[in-house]
């Protein structure tokens, strides 16, 4: 059963396709208040096929209810990286919703149905999300880019007027700087940036705004590295629970 689903999903990770202009994307930005995490639901309005990005275990019931109410069929529960501050809901969603596959980067070292590489694509109806490697916060970070480059889900690589920390989980400030400049700031200026967290009440930005106003990533690479090495942030409270759980998709009995 799972073998057939994974094989079908892998077939969908093919080359980019061009689609007609009549398609319509449904997007919901959802918030988990304890960890200030954003979860995103994207769906093709016509086929009702959906993807969820960075679900949180505590809000799985909310998210499954929303999916049910909107009549969406969840194809993928994808994590942008192995989170250190909350337990992912991807394993619980996969268990609750037959047909849903969990996904994360191969470079994360975590288990999931699909282990994504740079350039892989997740298809949902008439849309695709491209997985772009954007390491630095962690080695396995992905930015998920919609096929027309109108929006990017940056996880913790790029936050609004900020970025993910680089002081644990093999983080590297110089790598993060390169990722953001080469893999995100090269997107069109109008591309909407949807981050994995926000601690200041903001919801969305654009590539152009972040290129110009991001106080960290508008610095030179050397200035950025110095700044990141001096942040001295407290450890996430749930780190010792979250990282081991997220290496197993957030659940004990994951077989993938
Ligand atoms: N206080 C929170 C953790 C806050 C934190 O460290 N956030 C991370 C992303 S989650 S690992 C981060 O990269 N922050 C960047 C920054 O500049 O703050 C908790 O205890 O969970």
TrEMBL record:
Residue ranges of every copy of the Metallo-beta-lactamase domain listed in the record: 36-197
Keywords: Metal-binding
Record-linked Pfam families: Lactamase_B (PF00753)
Keyword Transport among record annotations: no
SMART domains in alphabetical order: Lactamase_B
Protein name: LOW QUALITY PROTEIN: persulfide dioxygenase ETHE1, mitochondrial-like
